[in-house]
Write a structure and sequence with these properties.
Four copies of one chain form a homotetramer. By secondary structure, chain A is an all-alpha fold. Chain A has two domains: 133 residues, Voltage-gated potassium channels. Chain C (Four Helix Bundle (Hemerythrin (Met), subunit A), Up-down Bundle), CATH 1.20.120; 89 residues, Helix Hairpins. Chain A contains ten helices and no strands. In chain A, helix 3 crosses helix 5. Chains A, B, C, D: It is a multi-pass membrane protein.
Amino acid sequence: MLTEDKNQTESLRERLRLIIFEAETPRGKAFDVVLLWCIGLSILVVMLETVKGLDAEYSRILLILEWIFTGIFTIEYLLRIWCSRKPLKYITSFYGVVDLLSCLPAYVVLFFGASSAFGVVRALRLLRMFRVLKMVNHVKGAEVILHGLVRSKEKITVFFFAILLLAVIAGTLMYYIEGRQPDTSFTSIPKSVYYAIVSITTVGYGDMVAQTELGRFITTLMILTGYAVIAVPTGIVTSEMIRMQETDKTSDACPSCGVHGHLPDAKFCRRCGSSMDERR
Amino acid sequence: MLTEDKNQTESLRERLRLIIFEAETPRGKAFDVVLLWCIGLSILVVMLETVKGLDAEYSRILLILEWIFTGIFTIEYLLRIWCSRKPLKYITSFYGVVDLLSCLPAYVVLFFGASSAFGVVRALRLLRMFRVLKMVNHVKGAEVILHGLVRSKEKITVFFFAILLLAVIAGTLMYYIEGRQPDTSFTSIPKSVYYAIVSITTVGYGDMVAQTELGRFITTLMILTGYAVIAVPTGIVTSEMIRMQETDKTSDACPSCGVHGHLPDAKFCRRCGSSMDERR
Amino acid sequence: MLTEDKNQTESLRERLRLIIFEAETPRGKAFDVVLLWCIGLSILVVMLETVKGLDAEYSRILLILEWIFTGIFTIEYLLRIWCSRKPLKYITSFYGVVDLLSCLPAYVVLFFGASSAFGVVRALRLLRMFRVLKMVNHVKGAEVILHGLVRSKEKITVFFFAILLLAVIAGTLMYYIEGRQPDTSFTSIPKSVYYAIVSITTVGYGDMVAQTELGRFITTLMILTGYAVIAVPTGIVTSEMIRMQETDKTSDACPSCGVHGHLPDAKFCRRCGSSMDERR
Amino acid sequence: MLTEDKNQTESLRERLRLIIFEAETPRGKAFDVVLLWCIGLSILVVMLETVKGLDAEYSRILLILEWIFTGIFTIEYLLRIWCSRKPLKYITSFYGVVDLLSCLPAYVVLFFGASSAFGVVRALRLLRMFRVLKMVNHVKGAEVILHGLVRSKEKITVFFFAILLLAVIAGTLMYYIEGRQPDTSFTSIPKSVYYAIVSITTVGYGDMVAQTELGRFITTLMILTGYAVIAVPTGIVTSEMIRMQETDKTSDACPSCGVHGHLPDAKFCRRCGSSMDERR
């Protein structure tokens, strides 16, 4: 009897594991979709809590919703620990920590109440926003972007270095030129470098602007140089994706050794040298 | 006699259908061009109606023009119903609804007059602006863009997800850092997330700006990260279009050896040298 | 004697024509470079004339410089008419009109003096700025960009249409939402459409900003949609240039018929069918 | 004895040269990393010196750190002169001048003190920021960007010319239209051209904005035209990088039949099937 019970529990655990951790089965997919909605709505609730006007009226409803979502995430977290084949590895993994942070701060916040708006409790309240990171696990194709970024990591670093170099030099020049004006906003080099980065990236808030003719001239030069530099990283990722696509496109496998990715006009396999004419 | 009449009517209906629904015949093209001009001018009239200074002087002319365009669109709508082979399908289609909305609100507005500026009538007045959607049907190549967007739909979704993820995390951080400043504009998380999106997309209105050194530092990091993420979707659509172009260029096979990928002006196969004229 | 004179004049005219109209000879190149400097400096002079502080001090020098440049451009214009094989065709051509407008307004302005700052004279003074168009004729590679733009003309039109469509719809929505706010800057649809275009293109001046939560939400949606649409034209021109490059790359000519632009693995000429093995 | 000493010194000089000038050996790499950190921290120190609030508290620590970094850069500079095979060539090279400017201004500044904030000393203080240029020598891949920019130098020049052309014409128009408004910021053509460049590059600070309907219309046209022009240089660099990549992929020829364009992992020629191992 006891062994049977154990077996039943084991089989339930295995079935739950498939639903919660895998997305291949229909139930697994449904679980993913429901969880995505819960995360999205939960973030909306935390966002609305901070709006001044709305908070007074709807605070009760928001509080109840927050309780519900915290409950769901807590149950999900406990089930994941129970189902997982290697619970410790899950708990210490990135997603394990994110899952814990999705429910833990809520309890602390609900315990202390919304009264103490600043300090540690305020930080904990906002920590709930990081539930958005739970989504990464459930959105298909998120790794495609991550992969693309990781593959061109080195080149992106060099690009950031180029922007920083330009920003430091242009920022220092702007600080030297504009810093002497009476009502200047270029009061320090860090602020001037911030101005340079905001300009090079074409954001241009307008909270800091050049007041002298020379300052405007340097700004113009800086923006145009930034344009030439910025065209490069766009090209990096584009060419990276075209290469990935090309490898996909020549997807015929060699009939002998099964290697993929031949050029479209290949007659012989490039790895084993056997004829590839059968494939046509 | 009656049958002849019917036949004549039928033939007229068919000819009208060719002019109104198809753009291949010269008359069909002329109809399209005239209609495009009417839509454009009609939108201009609705736009100018809302300008304070101009309205007083030209209001009479604008009113008359509005009557004329409404008349044209009404006749066009009725003719389309009469000509269409499946009138019900047309009426319930996207373009059918747009065509109805292009003339119906005008009557309600002209009935109530320009006096009641706000409320339902105001909404109806502005609904006339959606006449611009009628254009989609008449601009060649509009589907090319739509196709391109639809084909890379999934990847664009992932890209939007990446921007939202970054905006939610950076927005929350900015709210935590800047929200405590006395004259802050970061009064709620929704506003902070709006700030983050406006910054990441390099719009940068400047209505909300960081006031603290740390806030400016986070903003800089956020903008640069956004830059790396945004380079990706540009690459997506580019590579998509290059693939489409390549397929166009290389679709004919050699009738002798079956090799694909010839240049558009090829008369002889580049691999076996046999003539390729059969394909034309 | 007279015929000799005529011949000498004719030969001088021909030599001058080579220098002024062609850029192949060393003298022709030198002429181009000198003229480019004159145009650039002349524009600088006209620009500096409008600066309030500088004008008082340097006005005399600027006036003298302006006389010199006007003289140079007048002599150049007269020489061009004299040298040209088809003077009438040159005078009525785009560059002929630009060359005339580069010297004519200066005389009118110098005649009336700098006193009457506004009105027709002011317009004529500013017309001298269009001397910049003279440059197009002398900058190598300017046609490369023009060609690229002309070749993808249709697609760019469709892209502008897409932006306008989005701007009209989003602008109308913003006018409806924000127009009711007390201190709104969304006072008319044209202004709202201007706001929408400035936002979609990520310029974002910040002179008009959303004040309501809903307005900010619509703005966010509009910006993100604009991003997806804008990725397309970038792709258009990129793919166009890659295609041009690819044709350049396979630049081996057929040994029999001399046709260029074969694919890299071509064994037989695609136009005459003869073997191309000699080229390796 | 003396010869041995000389030999020892010579060998030490050679070993130091390998560490300081080359980055292949482990010690050379370590030297590079340490120097990069020193440069970065040194720049941070100079930046923080200009911040008003921080300076008072931490000025003593910053001064000590500045002494340390200046000492390190001085020793590095002297060692480089001593180690270099051609000291004069190093001293007069770009990196030699940058290395000198990294330590020299610090001595002048420390001698005069932080008291005289403006004038020559202020310029010298800021000159220390150019230490950032020392980094170029030590960051791998920085030349990749430089190479890419240099290779498409001509096309980038043409692109800048196109932007300037558009900016000059649009700026003049804006000056003519907006310059007559009472509270205009379009007070001169240089300012209007600055506005045009800031708009075309989508920076859009918002310190200068159109006030008239016509001014806003011209601005809209200018931005959209700029968009079409700006799509071109992005394409230029992208296509340049794709070409570089393709050359990397396809440079080995088959030793038997001479066909090029094999994939990087090819062991057998895809056209004749013979082994390609000889090439490695």
